[in-house]
Amino acid sequence: MDISTQTEVSGGKRIASAIAFLFFGVAVVGAVGFTLHKVSADPQAKMYASVNGTINYNGQNLKHAYITEGVYPDSVASKSHGPNGGSHPGWPSYGPATHLVLPAHAYVTMTLHVYDSGEHLNTNYFAKVVGTVENTATFDGVAAASILPTDVQHTFTLHGLPTQTQDPLFVNVPLPRVVADDKGNNIPTKDPGTNNQGHTVVFSFVTGGAGEYVWNCEYPCGDGTYAKFGAVMGAGGFMSGKVSVVNG
Questions:
Q1: What DSSP string runs through the chain?
Q2: Is the pLDDT of residue 22 over 80?
Q3: Which of 22, 126, 227, 240 is 20 to 30 A from 159, comparing alpha carbons?
Q4: Which residues partner with 215 through β-bridges?
């Protein structure tokens, strides 16, 4: 083989190696991108509020949106982590979704059916209803501005940092606990909306412009770390989630 032939073969090998390396690099980047997409994806399906008519509030004609959620003593009952409750079937959980999508500039009425027990809040502030219309909610049909700090099972606390492009939004509603007897069995309630197994809490609030917010529970229902704010309290999709306020 002469020198020119050897040069052509070597050049061909280099081109083939470069092409193979390029395809390998593209494959690696694609695999990494796919993995990161899966990791960053929402663990829960989105729940969209339904709009039904309008309501006049403070001289504004606003869309009236409705959304209903449940709060359960375990993630199996919540139906938001698969039929077997996912990796932590014994953890309390909201359900059936924890990423709520609400319309912007709307009057939102939220209904929560709640079925868990409870103890005492770390901070009595979260026993108050804050940020709702008239700063009240109805508990099994009775309007109130707060409940006893010793009667709370969880809270729905919606918040976010106001910015130049995002309106402030803060809502806190305490959820009354289901009382158990001395054998640990839940005592039936007087709420037919939950088949006398829990409580129904209804409240309304007004959204501003589009933005991304979070909600969480402020009742210490986690494990013994961080003043009972570990475990389920720090896991997205159980006692915390997202709220997207969207235009359209």
A1: --HHHHHHHHHHHHHHHHHHHHHHHHHHHHHHHHHHHHHHS-SS-EEEPEEEEEEEETTEEEEEEEEEEEEESSHHHHTSS-TT-TT-TTS-EEES-SEEEEESSEEEEEEEEE----B--SSGGGGB-BSSGGG-EEETTEEESB--GGGEEEEEEEE---BTTB----EEEEEEPPPB-TTSPBPP-S-GGGTTSSEEEEEEEE--SSEEEEEE--S--S-SSTTTTSGGGGSTTTSEEEEEEE--
A2: no
A3: 227
A4: 158, 241
CA 20/CA 82 separation, integer angstroms: 42
pTM: 0.80
- For the domain made up of 43-246, give the CATH fold: Immunoglobulin-like (2.60.40)
The two three-digit tokens of residue 172, written as one number: 């806190």
Q: In the chain, what are the domain boundaries?
A: 1-41, 43-246
Question: 77 phi and psi, to 5 degrees?
Answer: -65, -30
Q: Which tens digits make up the pLDDT trace of 56-84?
A: 999 999 999 999 999 998 888 888 777 77
